[in-house]
Each structure stands twice: as structure tokens, then as C-alpha cells.
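Researcher: Please translate sequence to C-alpha cells.
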Amino acid sequence: MPLDDILIDAEMHMEKANDHLLHELRGIRTGRASPALVEHIKVDYYGSPTDLRSIASISVPEATQILIKPFSPGDLRAIEKAINDSKIGLTPHSDGKQLRLVLPPLSQERRQQLAGQCKQMAETAKIAIRNARRDANKVLETEEKGGLVTEDDAAQGKEQIQELTKSYEAKVDEHVEKKRAEIMQI
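Model: Translation complete:
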């Protein structure tokens, strides 16, 4: 496997870890309402778990409210049950046609818990990035032992992989710091 392919593969895995982190961070509550808080809640839709966004429209009429309108009125109870069963800590209020989620203001203690959750997610992403680095280095060593890559190219490749790792870890830190600032903002 050529050195470029090894680097591209490592970068692809690191990018996936970064994208996953961004996806996870979108679901963490800040002081403002966001459809991302509820759109991935699984609803029992005719026996199969379905994302909420697939069976209802989700809007934010005010900064502290989320409005959920099911496409089919018969799904209202299933959506309400799924929200209650999820761990978002919000109680839906139904008027028979739609659900309203009112987000209470976050306490300082809860803000700190959410910031801690962000740090844990960041650490998980960094572990995935480091695993991609380890795997790329293993492939590089195997190629070197097999005589397909010279010793100098292998050393240069390892340096490039390390640079890639540092850049993606910096991106993770940047994303988490931005989200932490959003959470702590009153």
C-alpha cells in the first residue's frame, strides 16, 4: 500500500471521528432551543424505531421552546412516549395536535455537567483519532518490513501521520471549547 493511501485512509478515519463528535455535540443542550436536541429520538413507528424528524416537523418558535407537529395525528402518543422515555429531561405538553417542549433555564450545576459531558465526548473522539494513527503506523511498519517502503519513507510517513493527528486533535479541542462556551453563556 503506497504511503499516500495510508495517509488518506488515516485522515478519512480521523475525519469520521471529528464528524461524529460534531454530531454528538449538536445534541447537547445549551441555553437555547434547537431541533437537534430531539430530532434523533427514536419513536416506535409501526413496530420499527424511527427518527423523530422522519415522522414530524420540528421547529423553534421561541428561544426556549421546541414545537413538534406529527405528520400523522395518530403518532402523537408514540412521540410523546418516546420523548418521555428519552434522557433529555424535558416533559412534552400536548394540545391534541402538536407537542411543545419548554426548556427551563439551566442551573450553573447543570451547565457544568453538560460541559463535562462535552469533555468526555472529546476524549472519545481523540481516542478514535489516536487509534487511526496507531493503525496507520502499523500498516506503515508492515510495509517497511515487507520491503515495499524504505526506512526513510516510513519515518517521513510517521511524521506526517503525527502531524495529521495533532491537527485533528486541535480541531476536536476547538469544537469542544466552542460548545463549552455556548453552554456556559447565560
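Researcher: Any highlights?
Model: The mean pLDDT is 88.
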